[in-house]
Amino acid sequence: MVSVNIDTIDELLPEIESCIKQADFIALDTEFSGLNIGSGSRESRFDQAHHRYSRFRQNVREASLLQFGLACFTRLPKAVPDHGDNLDQQRTYKVTCFNIVLAPADTGLKDFRTKNFVSEWSAMRFLKNHGFDLNEVIERGVPNLSIAELEHLAVKLRRGICALKDAEFSSEALRMAETDAQSVESIIDSANGSFEPQQLRGLRSPPIALHCVLREMFPRIWTTPLSWNSMQFQFVNANQRAAFENNDRSVEEWFLKQSSLGGKIFAQIIQEKKILVGFQLLQDLMFLVDTFYGPIPEDYADFKAIIREVFPNLYDGKVITQAVSRMENINGFGHFDAPSLEELFSTMKSAKTTGVFQYGPKFEQDDRHDHYDTENKAHEAAYDAYMAGVVFLNTIFVLNASKVAEIRNRTLQAAARTLPASGRQREATLHTLPPLLLLRTEMDFAALDEYRGLLYLHIAADKTMNVFGEDEQAVRSKAWVRLVSGNEMVPVCKSQVLAVFLQACVYEHHIVSQEEIIIACPSQERATKVAEYANNFLGVKASVFDSCTMRKLDEHRVIKSKRSYSKMIFWASLCVLVGVGFRKLSGRIW
Length: 590
Prior knowledge:
By secondary structure, the chain is of the alpha/beta class. It folds into four domains: 2-145 and 262-455, Nucleotidyltransferase, domain 5; 158-248, no CATH class; 476-545, RRM (RNA recognition motif) domain (Alpha-Beta Plaits, 2-Layer Sandwich); 549-590. The protein is 45% helix and 16% strand. The protein has helices at 9-22, 49-62, 121-129, 134-140, 147-156, 171-189, 207-217, 238-247, 250-259, 261-272, 282-293, 300-310, 317-324, 341-349, 381-416, 435-439, 496-504, 524-537, 547-589; strands at residues 2-4, 25-32, 65-75, 92-104, 142-144, 198-201, 221-227, 230-235, 275-278, 314-316, 362-365, 454-456, 462-466, 472-473, 480-484, 509-513, 516-520, 541-545. Strands 1, 2, 3, 4, 5, 9, 10 and 11 form an eight-stranded mixed sheet that branches. A four-stranded antiparallel sheet has the order 16-17-15-18. Strand 7 and strand 8 (230-235) form a beta hairpin. The radius of gyration is 31 Å and the shape is flat.
């Protein structure tokens, strides 16, 4: 991959923007510091899409985005076939992968407090075991502010950093800046009348705070930035100093530019409206919105509206491959049975299991990451993005090849009507198509239109989050058991017999109230048996229902609560009006 960090992003940004502009589609992946940070962030089988979003949101607000991987897939111009031998060259994609290492930009200002680094030990060990280097994030991560933060900061710096007050900086930023300032003081003392510009390197304090402190401490100098940890200063007289304060905004402009470089990549993706591909994309998108766009909204509908606006051509490879795994005519050999991205990719690329994929699209790696063809770099964000793109294209290939097989079958059936039964051919599948037909199969992206905007939800009441419409209910969530207390029974939550049963039961349960508990079962058959057992032996009333019923119950509770609240407001307002009228009447009487 092409490593993008604080030292290389200025040079690589034009290339990244050009690759995004030219790409037929873009695959992405991210790596972050934890999966379940924050209370209540763990997944539940009872989660509807908006519940899962709320859980993930807690994690996104606490954890940090560490890597942002991009893989730009560009179809090469069609080559002229040489006697039919080079047909596979007509579906070759040039792949360029960028691994962007990210860190929050530290302004030192109280209004822009840098996010605390919070992580899970298990997540960091996992990343470390797969070659992740946290030191690179700390030392060379691309400093970044979101669009919302940049707009706020631009307003704050409009009058220049000399107008900022010490009280606007954090005490830690001021302490670090004053420590760095000691080296400037020693240089000034040893200048011996020399007025040559001086450079300082290896600085540790936030740049805005450092430049502000130095200009305040030393009226005879003026500072300009060189990099995040280096600067230059020159000696000036009073008139020069006044002119610089009024006209020189080099620090302000430099900081805003440097803090927006990561966001420019995000903005370019939005602007181009390219097809965007990933695998189990939901948390990736949430981290990208929170990091580059602005604080991730609390309201689920607002988040969906943002995604609709910025990523209108979105595809989650997990949703697509899971659907294809159920198509017997395509998945007859189990290529799509693998649950993880790494396993799917390996199945499609391995010489032992490649099958029809050997006639699928080909990939030409950029020289800077040609080792991707021979080495497994799983859980490096750029490599995971590359795998997601390969799986995406291979899925398009088999769906289109299956259509070719269907057309071939219809043609053979029409011709077979004139032949005796013994002369008729068996129906073909894509796995029995001649190699020449497979090589000529077009890569029509329209084969995936029905999956646009669907995001995978792992073991939840809803199967997918639909960015463009209603979320789809999962089949497994139609097998829930509801336990309620009878008129004269002990409340279910206080039943000792039921407590023992729930402790031994392997299925997840949810306490709705003292009178109601729900159990999530893996199938309708199992739910029926659990309900029958509960009715006969546990002294409760049990019934089988699905999450749609749960939605209706929740909606009924919300409506009932709103009505109660409205009534309360009405009576409170009436009491106030009556009280005011009484006081006025009393005043007239007395």
